[in-house]
Each structure stands twice: as structure tokens, then as C-alpha cells.
């Protein structure tokens, strides 16, 4: 039996290109003949670690402050991203998006991985953040979302409040630094092939075929 292909995806729940990249990767994986032997793991990356849990203001306000761009330019950029997201079936709602620190969401993803539900929780958190205006920085809200994908709400809440998975999140971020990752999404195949950005589905299929051939 062939060894599985491992795919580690460094991403942030608050990264619009990461959700787009997720959809494109999934589409590329669906076209790969050996898709049943691919193991996917989400790794932690914080795009803006200094973000407060309760950010006062809109996504436009955040980007104006964080990137120093004029509001009109930010609005145009978000509209462009919204259109690209729509092309892969996503309905981004930047008007109602609640910008927040994503550290606890990453801790929850590590908890979910330990309980066999990481892919389901990653999808749920992305949808909650970008499409539904949910607050994914608060532990109670994260626990609610985790329960929706079949995780024990009380156990998730306890893990988040104790910081049980904080070291695992820090280790992912350190590994990203060691790899030289400066932006996400970033995909690492079998620990040696790196693909940066939300590439096309075809690109992901080609990479998977190359890794399989090797």
C-alpha cells in the first residue's frame, strides 16, 4: 500500500485568500486519482497577531489602519476579492464581518484535529467569519461552532480557556518562520514541496500528480 501524501496548509481564518485557496485546492484534489490517499492538516498562522479580540470598526476600518491604504482603495480591493470568491461559490459579506484576533480559533482547530474533526471545523469557521458575520474570536462562539460539527462544546470551551493547545499553535507559527512563509495560504506537500497562494485547481492537481510520481 502506497504511503499517503501529506498536505499541510498554513492559513488564517481571517484570510480571504485562504478560504478561496481552500476551495481551489479541494477542486484540484477532486480531480486527482489518488485523492483518497491524501491527508490534509491545517496549520496555524496569524496574519495580524496584534488585532484585539473585539475590534471596534468595520473591515474597511481595519485595513485602512493596518495597511495604511485609502478607504476608497480598500473598498475596491474588497469588491475584487468578493468577485473572485463568488467564482468558487463563496458569498463574502465584508459589511457584516467582525474582525478579530484568531488565536483561539487556531487553538480550536488543534483540538478538532485531535478529535478527527479538523477539516469540518476549518470549513465552519471560514463560513462563519466570511459569510455569516459570526464572531470567531470569542471562546463561547467558537465552542458553539465546534458543537455544530459534532465536537463536545464543553470540552472545547475548557480547552480554549485553559490554553491547552497554545503551544501547538506557537509551534506551527515557528515552523512557518523556519520554512520562510511570509503569507498565506501556503501548502506543503510531503514536507518538501511548497506552493504559495490560492493557485488554480489545475495547479494543485498537477502538484499532487508530481508528488505521487516521485
UniProtKB/TrEMBL annotation:
Origin: domain of life: Bacteria
Pfam family, one: DSBA
Transmembrane residue ranges: none
InterPro entries in alphabetical order: DSBA-like_thioredoxin_dom (IPR001853), Thioredoxin-like_sf (IPR036249)
Name of this chain's protein: DsbA family oxidoreductase
Annotated ranges, domain DSBA-like thioredoxin: 6-208
Phylogenetic lineage: Bacteria, Bacillati, Actinomycetota, Actinomycetes, Mycobacteriales
